[in-house]
Amino acid sequence: MNDDGKAFEREFKRKTYAEDIQSLERYIRDLSDAMTELRHESLTILKAHQLYMNDWQGQARQMYDALLDDLDDAEYRVYDSLSNVKQQATEEIERLRLKAEELI
Questions:
Q1: Cα–Cα distance between 13 and 27 in angstroms, integer?
Q2: In angstroms, rounded to a whole number, what is the distance separating the alpha carbons of residues 88 and 67?
Q3: What's the pTM value of the predicted model, to 2 decimals?
Q4: Under 8 Å CB-to-CB from 21, ≥6 apart: which residues?
């Protein structure tokens, strides 16, 4: 392959890496938005709990508290999963940037 062909191939790869990076950056923003929405909804549930559930007693209260605990556990698991995916996407962006820099 001649030098023009190699230069074209390098430029094509750099553009492909740049597009992949932009896609991952959008994905990270979407994940951040989802995490913010999750936190907001969780706080809404907590406020409702504090306003309306203080007078509940007996089995209804126990069942409600168990449900609230399950929701809290699910929230933390989802939040942790989203954080892990964000970290992996960030690492992939860095890897792609390094590969693109090698082509310069």
A1: 21
A2: 32
A3: 0.78
A4: 93, 96, 97, 100
Residue 31 · residue 87 · CB < 8 Å: no
pLDDT of residue 1: 58
Per the CB < 8 A criterion, the answer to whether 89 and 27 are in contact is yes
- 13 band by pLDDT with thresholds 50, 70 and 90: very high
Q: Which residue has the tokens 């690492």?
A: 91
In the numeric block, the tokens 């990270």 are attached to: 28
Helix H or strand E segment including 1: none
**Residue entry with tokens 């597009």:** 19
Comparing C-alpha atoms, which of 71, 66, 5 is closest to residue 38?
Answer: 71
Confidence of residue 93 (pLDDT cuts 50, 70, 90): very high
